[in-house]
Specification:
Layout: H1 2-5, E1 10-14, H2 25-35, E2 41-44, E3 51-57, H3 62-76, E4 94-100, E5 103-109, H4 116-122, H5 127-142, H6 177-188, E6 206-210, E7 218-220, E8 227-229, E9 235-239, H7 240-248, H8 253-261, H9 268-282
Length: about 290
């Protein structure tokens, strides 16, 4: 802990903003300190917001989410709007992400729109319009081209956050698909009745997953019909069964319906993973004795 607190500031994303000045690192830290621990967000400037600042404490912070959001945002810019593969969502641009000590921070565009969750409370009749937009958005995200570096979890590597894991977070970063398989198969050894499970994730392609496409993570612009995606904490890259698992076996019925409308069919691996997830949920050691946790 002391070593982490004494580390110098590390910037992981830094992009220019054409029409406004991004607050300095010191300003951001002070704004968030003043806001306190009862929230994890600050608008800047407070009276006429241009930027949305998120912050959190802990080892797995804003840097990983920021890299993923930045990657998805840049892909929304790379496709001709008239093309069949054109993005069906908008994403706030990330301008800055950094860690200072125990805290990490992300600065992005402020988008003053209601979440889909809030909008549908007031206008439930709009579900027929909005639901297909969400389905298309999730389908576009999970089929994004991979970064090409072979790293698992968030873009740029790190700890995967996915509903399969206890507390929705892997206990350590995975090195490759073989490492993922070793972890899942170790959990399956404790499942009763015991069988000789041997899931092979190396035989699967890597793919983006979206493990939390909930209504609260989308914003809706009724004036333009645009759908915005916010919160990329549970988006990343893992073997394909994890993408299927998130959409076929999610606890949220609305998310499972997204999978159904995308024509997602659970693989045998994904179905068997449910048994491992049940074991992980009650295991006192989520690392299962694998030393990367030490």
């Amino acid at each position: 802990m002391e070593k982490l607190l004494n580390r110098p500031t590390v910037v992981t994303v830094e992009r220019p903003c054409a029409d406004a000045t991004v607050p300095s690192l010191d300003e951001i830290v002070e704004l968030c300190r003043a806001a306190g621990l009862r929230t994890n967000q600050v608008l800047y400037p407070p009276n006429t917001p241009r930027f949305f600042i998120k912050y959190t404490s802990g080892l797995c912070g804003m840097e990983e989410e920021a890299r993923t959001q930045d990657y998805v945002y840049r892909h929304t810019l790379r496709v001709d709007a008239s093309a069949a593969a054109a993005p069906c969502i908008r994403v706030p641009q990330v301008y800055l992400a950094f860690r200072r000590g125990w805290y990490s921070y992300m600065v992005m565009d402020y988008v003053p729109l209601p979440t889909v969750e809030d909008w549908l409370v007031q206008r439930p009749e709009d579900a027929a319009t909005i639901r297909p937009l969400i389905v298309s958005a999730v389908g576009w995200i999970v089929n994004l081209p991979l970064p090409g570096d072979g790293l698992l979890g968030p873009v740029g590597g790190g700890t995967a956050k996915h509903i399969f894991f206890r507390d929705f977070e892997a206990p350590f970063p995975f090195l490759d698909a073989k490492h993922v398989g070793e972890y899942v198969n170790k959990a399956l050894k404790w499942v009763r009745p015991r069988k000789n499970y041997a899931l092979d994730f190396e035989a699967e392609p890597l793919q983006f997953y979206d493990a939390d496409p909930a209504d609260r993570n989308f914003l809706y612009d009724s004036a333009t019909g645009d759908l915005w995606r916010v919160d990329f904490e549970h988006v990343g890259v893992l073997p394909r069964s994890f993408a299927l698992y998130a959409l076929c076996l999610h606890q949220d019925k609305c998310v499972r319906q997204i999978g159904e409308q995308l024509g997602v069919v659970c693989s045998e691996n994904a179905t068997t993973m449910m048994r491992a997830a049940g074991r992980l949920s009650v295991c006192s050691d989520p690392c299962l004795g694998m030393r990367p946790c030490a």
